[in-house]
Amino acid sequence: MSDETVVLETNKGVIKMKIFTEKAPITSKNFLDLVNSGFYNGLTFHRYVEGFVIQGGDPKGDGTGGSDKTIKLEIKDDLRHDKAGKLAMARSMDPNSASSQFYITLARLPDLDGNYAVFGEVTEGIEVVLQLRKSDVMEKVYVE
Fold first, then answer.
1. Of 57, 94, 112, 119, whose CB has the highest number of CB atoms within 10 Å?
2. Cα–Cα distance between 141 and 36 in angstroms, integer?
3. How many domains are there within the chain?
4. Which residues lie closer than 8 Å to 94 by C-beta, 6 or more apart?
5. CATH code of residue 102
């Protein structure tokens, strides 16, 4: 399976993300299945921390929700939080609790390496990512 491109149409503009389907197959499949089902359409970004991350993918909109399944933590040494625009799965304290919530880094965040699954990166629209704030909307999310 070759890497896929996911388009995030937000109220602030369009973001394109390369999904590392070969390097992170478990995490990528979970995310792409949700994208293809329309799960993310209309959801908001519920968390913004300046210089850290913008996070979304919670159907409840408050950081406590997810999809109906969780996945195993998938860490690869060459997939790092090494710049703004890295796409990774959020989770609870349980390493194997990632579901539907994801975040995009707003800076280099090496402290997150080894604890959260990086599975993609922004290829177009990093300026849009940097403008996103809490309550901004993912109007439509789809595979290009």
1. 119
2. 8
3. 1
4. none
5. 2.40.100.10
The continuous run of DSSP H or E covering 45 comes out as: strand 45-49
Which pLDDT score is estimated for 2? Answer: 81
Q: Residue for token digits 């999310």?
A: 141
**Tokens standing for residue 65:** 């929700």
Strands 13-19 and 4-10: antiparallel
pTM greater than 0.85 (yes/no):
yes
What's the mean per-residue pLDDT of the chain? 97
Q: In a 3-state reduction of DSSP, which class is residue 20?
A: coil
**Host domain of residue 134:** 4-143
In angstroms, the Cα distances linking 13 to 1, 4, 56, 116, 133 are: 29, 20, 16, 27, 12
Judge whether 21 and 3 are in contact, CB under 8 Å.
yes
Question: Hey, how many other C-beta atoms are within 10 angstroms of the C-beta on 71?
Answer: 18
Q: Which of 40, 60, 54 is nearest to 87 (CA)?
A: 54
Q: Coil, strand, or helix at residue 15?
A: strand
